[in-house]
Specification:
With about 150 residues, the chain is an alpha+beta fold. The chain folds into 2 domains: about 35-60; about 65-150, Sandwich (Immunoglobulin-like). It contains 3 helices and 6 strands, in the order αααββββββ. The protein has helices spanning about 5-10, 15-25, 35-60; strands at about 65-75, 80-90, 95-105, 110-115, 125-130, 135-145. A 3-stranded antiparallel sheet has the order 1-2-5, with no helix packed on it. It has a 3-stranded antiparallel sheet with strand order 4-3-6, with no helix packed on it. The longest helix is centred in the N-terminal third of the chain and has 26 residues, at about 35-60.
């Protein structure tokens, strides 16, 4: 069987050769493959970052160490209201401070009081003076950070 002549011998070029002669050959893109140590490093960094994010999220979204719930309130004479709160804390042996407030008909705060909750005591009652007629009372929040002026001597 006779051999077929090549394009160089016959003087004809294929279509891709003519295009390549006119515009140049296509460059091959360098292959960017991660090396094994780069993949392990990236994985380790991602795991550490995920762990830190999970820890911070748990600390910020977990249950509060101290909470108070309003049990009831009763209007008193001379623009005052008595509120009874139930304080729940993770360490009942520690002192705590709770902020309670009175609200007027429009819902604005019209009185506020900080109460010191002694260790081992869960239910507290106090009277809040208001600048107008109070219609409700609620708990603003509680903390273990007790201001100096409330500290017991």
């Amino acid at each position: 069987m006779p051999e077929e002549p090549t394009s160089a011998e016959t003087g004809t070029e294929s279509g891709t050769d003519r295009i390549a002669d006119r515009y140049g050959r296509a460059r091959k893109k360098p292959r960017t493959k991660l090396k094994r140590w780069q993949a392990w490093t990236f994985t380790a960094v991602a795991l550490v970052a995920s762990g830190v994010a999970a820890y911070i999220g748990y600390q910020n979204l977990a249950g509060a160490p101290i909470e108070a719930q309003r049990i009831g309130y009763e209007e008193r004479p001379n623009n005052a209201v008595e509120i009874t709160v139930d304080v729940t804390r993770d360490d009942p042996a520690r002192e705590a401070v709770c902020i309670v407030r009175a609200r007027n008909l429009s819902g604005q705060e019209s009185g506020r009081k900080e109460i010191l909750v002694p260790p081992e005591q869960g239910r507290m009652s106090t009277v809040i003076q208001s600048i107008g007629r109070p219609v409700t009372a609620d708990v603003y929040g509680c903390s273990y950070d007790i201001p100096e002026y409330l500290s017991s001597p």
